[in-house]
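#help-structures

NK: newbie question. if I give both the sequence and a SMILES, will the prediction place the ligand too? trying with adenosine-5'-diphosphate
OV: yes, paste both and it writes out the complex. here, I ran yours:
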Amino acid sequence: MADVSLKNLHKTFDITEAVRGINLDIVDNEFLVLVGPSGCGKSTVLRLIAGLEEITEGNVLIEGNIVNDIPPKDRDIAMVFQSYALYPHMTVYENMSFGLRLRKYSKNEINKRVLDAAKILNISELLDRRPKQLSGGQRQRVAMGRAIVRNPKVFLFDEPLSNLDAKMRGQMRTEIKKLHQHLKTTIIYVTHDQVEAMTLADRIVVMNDGIIEQVGTPDEMYNAPKTHFVASFIGSPSMNFIPCQVIKTNEDLYIKINDKLYFSVPKERLDRYKVLINKEAILGIRPEHLTNAKQHIHDMYEDFNAKVKVLEPMGMDTMVFFDISEAEVCARCDPKSVGKVQSDMTFTIDKSQIHLIDIKTNKVI
Amino acid sequence: MKKLISKSGLHSNRKWALYTSYGFLIAFVIFFLFPPYFMLVTSLKSNTEIAELATNPWIIEHGVTFEHYWSLLSETSFLTFFRNTVVVTLLVVAITMVVSVLAAYSLSRLKFWGSGILATGIFLTYLVPETLLFIPLFKIVGWLGLLNSYWVLVLVYPTLSIPFCTWIMIGYFSSIPKELDEAALIDGANHIQMLLKVFIPVAMPGLIAATIFAFTVSWAGFLYPLAFIYSESEMVLTVGTVTTLIKGDVFHWGGLMAGALLASAPPVILYAFLMDYYIAGLTSGATKG
Ligand SMILES: Nc1ncnc2c1ncn2[C@@H]1O[C@H](COP(=O)(O)OP(=O)(O)O)[C@@H](O)[C@H]1O
Ligand SMILES: [Mg+2]
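OV: that's the protein plus ligand as structure tokens.
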């Protein structure tokens, strides 16, 4: 139940600059997810907030107070580790109550809090077991229980689900979401899995190479990525990228992919794409906005032909792969009307959903 | 059908593996139990039977006698030796464990300037053999006025046991995942609480291994008491038993064997007791695995 601010946060390990100037305001009760590829500095940011690493430069504020020099135990935070980090020699009850015992809470208070948390997490029958007698999912719950009993201002999760199998992961994801609704507390959650980020987050922070690429709601991340990196990172299957050029003929702009393939730029975007005229660019389009030919219900649709290379039926949809000038492109089509492999097929592109990326700056224009 | 054959093949393979391992185990047990058996048998024989060359040395032919045990306990200073050894060993084990656990904790977890070199240095000191050390140590303990007192052993045995035990404990502490300290740190533990409530319980098998080592160094040490102590009242079991029961070229075999057997009883009891804890292996389940 607190807001957290990061001001120009830097962290350098020996020679590695793991975090290179992060500015972020996390509001009270927010579920914020830090997502990015492995090694981009997500865990380091979390550990700087927790106080497990020393800050090289910048400030961490919790509830408006600079906590740079405050030890982890006095920051009123709780952390759930990827490896769970349960004390192997203690029972579940002892694991959960350890922090409270160190803080000299009364026996009754400890008992009440542990039993409450155990009930929320459905681990009441496991309180006498030791960690090695528990399954992965159960250990995960205990690790969360250990965080809950302390009733901290901020919860920090570092890839808590990545050691679980796919089915368990889905289940625990729902539980974490429910937990957040129940506890009404600030959660900062680190993951490399964009699906997890999309499903859990109020706001997503995409990190890459020690800096923030973009901050926004899952919806903004998906529909309006600001950089090439975000566009490629968010969404599964991921966005198609096709090299192209923007050219001007009379008053119209065209996106030229090769000598045979042109798309006219929609009127609303003429101003936006002017800066790209005669420059190399990348056309980004998600598979779901490339479909088998269909009726043009508005003038944003345009057709083109391509030779089908591979088909991947997924039940509801079939993913159709084809090449457009060296780039492999994937379209999400209706299984009833896909062509055969090696045959020509007509696709429809939804131009209201395109993203043009300036290859000099890697920004989406 | 094919499956059945391969299954029975596996079965007989397993059977053979079991037979061979039992065969080897039994051979080893016999090999290692011969000395204690010989000690026991000899200590229960009368002096005349021990001296008689015609009898079978492996069995008692002329009746069991406890005279050697009786004379060992009543006519020699065996009980004094025993008491001195117990005092020395308890103190050495206590000093060793306190120092090496603290040293290992700081060397494995508090990264300070030179901690890596220090950890290696500690191990190197263990590599210097005591046969080289006892001459300079003689001068040092003489200067300290500790010669001919069992307190000298309380001082010098830790120089052997602390480096090795520290090394063992560094290994165990380093294998404790870093997240465990971090979890404890966030839970509110200070260094002492972290050591007492997390590190020591988790590294219990290592602690027991180190304790056994320190105990053995101190209980079975021979060279240092031989070099530094000469009064019977200050003597410990190892050297004491030998010096009182070998007079010139007369070997009191019965008494020697009885003394050796009694002296080796406490380590055996200790090992048997601690082995269970040692094997229990408390570390698993700390993190994912
Ligand atoms: N204790 C450390 N010492 C040296 N380098 C580190 C340390 N921790 C992390 N790094 C480096 O910092 C970078 C970011 O690491 P991390 O925050 O763990 O990434 P992520 O959690 O996003 O995978 C990596 O290049 C990593 O090698
Ligand atoms: Mg990480």
